[in-house]
């Protein structure tokens, strides 16, 4: 098992410049999840992607408002290595099949925002930044997107997100065991120990965080050295 | 120095172009046989499916052109697999520079495709790994692999040891994506350009 560290460039100020800095500091992959993306600012997003891709020498994923083959084509041509789709896949699951066929599974990440529903005692997929519940059970949806051709799953626990109290390790482990594609865990990172937990008991293939890196609460290189000292294979 | 990047239907090559931009190397992205033949060095990149890519290369006559090139050629990812003799992907007869059979990863325990950073170790003398550590992490994305063979110049281990790099005469090949493999990948590209 090896641990991969993703940095989310959302709200990062200048994503191109910061992306290059994070790459230099040892981030393994970068994602830019422009959750507010709409058709209107598509051109801005494409230009921004080009700017980041020019600067970084590590894999770079883009997500936000992607709902067609044409959207993905524009982003890949601008230099993105992978795209992440979320609510558009919930709305029309066939989109995952179509994109995997057109571009290959290796560049299609399905992002799943999930929240525990106490009444049902189960985790359900949510959309709209976690505000709107869907009928999809998280574990079943993870298996479905894998079967449809997703190459990786970006799993965000809306319960853990923003708490800095640790990743949702139990849920991440369940999803990771249910699916045979890599799981990127997101939401809840507050300390270096949280990353150790998510790579061990959480069985995650990768851990993602944004603000703790932007606000320099945790330095990437220090994190990777720490994880290596905990016996988790790291690229250093 | 003239660098030609071969233009065909396998994946997008924006990352390769940006990587060359970052190290200040000009290039032409072309499928024109004359441009490719007269280039000082040729890069054959790609992300895609073997049978679809081979069908396109054959239709354009690029398969025989590539095999006949005499200047240094760097093939990456599907480009490397296409330089082998045959691939299990789509049961495809490939270009055949390397007398090697490309196989599909099969594992009960490990996730396929092999995606992400993994370490490679040099085997024999490998000019493209000059200046690198004995073990370097590079970025992989693939479901098919070339077994370790007489042409192997770097080995990676996933499911079993497999060829991370191959070399024969003027042909150099890498299974990983040097263009997005951080500083190590940059050094490999620079080493190729310096050949």
Structural features, described:
The complex is a heterodimer of chains A (236) and B (195). With 236 residues, chain A is α/β, with parallel strands linked by helices. Chain A has a single domain, classed as TIM Barrel. Chain A has 10 helices and 10 strands. Chain A has helices at 15-25, 42-55, 69-77, 87-91, 94-103, 138-148, 169-178, 192-199, 211-214, 220-229, and strands at residues 4-8, 29-33, 60-63, 82-85, 108-117, 122-127, 132-137, 152-157, 183-186, 206-209. An 8-stranded parallel β-barrel of chain A has the order 1-2-3-4-5-8-9-10, surrounded by 7 helices. In chain A, β1, α1 (15-25) and β2 (29-33) form a beta-alpha-beta unit. In chain A, α1 (15-25) runs parallel beside α2. The longest helix of chain A has 14 residues, at 42-55. Chain A is globular, with a radius of gyration of 17 Å. The longest helix of chain B has 12 residues, at 182-193. Chain B has a single domain, classed as 3-Layer(aba) Sandwich (Rossmann fold), CATH 3.40.50.880. Chain B has helices at residues 14-22, 33-38, 50-59, 62-67, 78-82, 182-193, and strands spanning 3-6, 28-30, 41-44, 73-76, 84-87, 92-93, 98-104, 114-122, 135-142, 144-145, 152-158, 160-168, 171-174. In chain B, the strands form 2 sheets. Chain B has a 9-stranded mixed beta sheet. Chain B is globular, with a radius of gyration of 15 Å. Chain B has 6 helices and 13 strands. Helix content of chain B is 25%, strand content 34%. Chain B has 195 residues and is an alpha/beta fold. The chains are: A alpha/beta (236), B alpha/beta (195). The A-B interface holds A 2, 4, 23, 28, 53-54, 57-60, 76-79, 81, 103-107, 151-152, 180-182, 205-206, 235 and B 11-12, 14-15, 18-19, 21-22, 47-49, 111-113, 115-119, 137, 139, 141-142, 177, 179-183, 185-186.
How many domains make up the 3D coordinates of chain B?
1
The CATH topology of chain A corresponds to: TIM Barrel
Number of helices of chain A: 10
| CATH architecture term of chain B | 3-Layer(aba) Sandwich
- Span of the ends, CA to CA of chain B: 12 Å
Mean of residue pLDDT of chain B?
94
Strand arrangement, largest sheet of chain B?
2-1-3-4-13-12-11-8-9
Question: What name is given to the CATH topology of chain B?
Answer: Rossmann fold
Give unreliable regions of chain A as ranges. Answer: none
| Envelope shape of chain B | globular
Count of distinct structural domains of chain A: 1
Give the tally of β-strands of chain B: 13
Described by strand count, sense and barrel closure, the largest sheet of chain B is: 9 strands, mixed
Share of residues in strands of chain A: 15-25%
Question: Could you give the order of strands across the largest sheet of chain A?
Answer: 1-2-3-4-5-8-9-10
Estimated structural class of chain A: alpha/beta
Radius of gyration of chain B: 15 Å
CATH homologous superfamily annotation of chain B: Class I glutamine amidotransferase (GATase) domain
Number of helices of chain B: 6
Chain pair sharing the greatest interface: A-B, 28 and 31 residues
Any idea of the CATH class of chain B? Alpha Beta
